[in-house]
Automatic annotation (TrEMBL):
Biological-process GO terms, alphabetical: protein folding
Keyword Secreted included in the entry's annotation: no
Highest taxon listed in the record's lineage: Bacteria
Protein name stated in the entry: Peptidyl-prolyl cis-trans isomerase
Swiss-Prot/TrEMBL catalytic activity: [protein]-peptidylproline (omega=180) = [protein]-peptidylproline (omega=0)
Signal peptide segment: 1-31
Function of the protein: PPIases accelerate the folding of proteins. It catalyzes the cis-trans isomerization of proline imidic peptide bonds in oligopeptides.
Family per record: Belongs to the cyclophilin-type PPIase family.
Keywords, alphabetical: Isomerase, Rotamase, Signal
């Protein structure tokens, strides 16, 4: 199944933003309804370019968060890469090995894109195909505010389910790596940016 995601550096242009659909995929979770004091899960990414931490939002996107956490617990993301990187737009990963072989995934999840959690700089969202309910394991991190990807702007939107709380400089570094074409894909880092480990940060950390 071909996966897509928002497209190109020119997404700043409303006209070209309409083309914003390229490689992406999705995930499930359990809501923490109404408890504003509930601790949000955190995950740490260890990559070949450095580490960063994300706080997830099961209060807004419960199925998406649970799906992402299940892939994390299964060790699915270890050894995968950021296979699509566009400066001034986003970095996308979670589906391919360093050799750009696609990893098999679980079934897709429902699209939980919400106006309450827009695609702003530092947020993580699910990649998907043109089918809104097609996300599996792939995700992307916005490096700018990408309003065109929000629910209701140009369709169903892309489901945001968390944000970077530490290490945004690492994300920016990844966004700035040299890219080219590889195995029929564009915007692929010339030097693979490897996700070495993704782990849930325990409460006592």
């Amino acid at each position: 199944m071909t996966q897509y995601m928002p497209f190109s550096r020119q997404l700043v242009s409303p006209l070209l933003a309409a083309l914003a659909a390229f490689c992406l995929v999705s995930a499930p979770a359990q809501a923490q309804s109404g408890d504003e004091d509930a601790t949000m899960p955190e995950v740490r990414f260890e990559t070949s370019q450095g580490d960063f931490v994300l706080e997830l939002r099961p209060d807004v996107a419960p199925e998406t968060v649970e799906n992402f956490l299940q892939y994390t617990r299964d060790g699915f993301y270890e050894g995968t890469v950021f296979h699509r990187v566009i400066a001034g737009f986003m970095i996308q990963g979670g589906g391919f090995t360093a050799e750009l072989s696609r990893k098999p995934t679980r079934d897709p999840i429902v699209n939980e894109a919400s106006k309450d959690l827009p695609n702003q700089r530092g947020t993580i969202a699910m990649a998907r195909t043109n089918n809104p309910d097609s996300a599996t394991s792939q995700f992307f991190i916005n490096v700018v505010d990408n309003d065109a990807l929000n629910a209701g702007v140009r369709g169903a939107g892309y489901a945001v389910f968390g944000e970077v709380t530490e290490g945004m400089d690492v994300v920016d570094t990844i966004a700035g790596v040299e890219t080219g074409y590889a195995r029929g894909m564009r915007d692929v880092p010339v030097e693979p940016v490897i996700i070495e480990k993704v782990s849930v940060v325990s409460n006592d950390e």
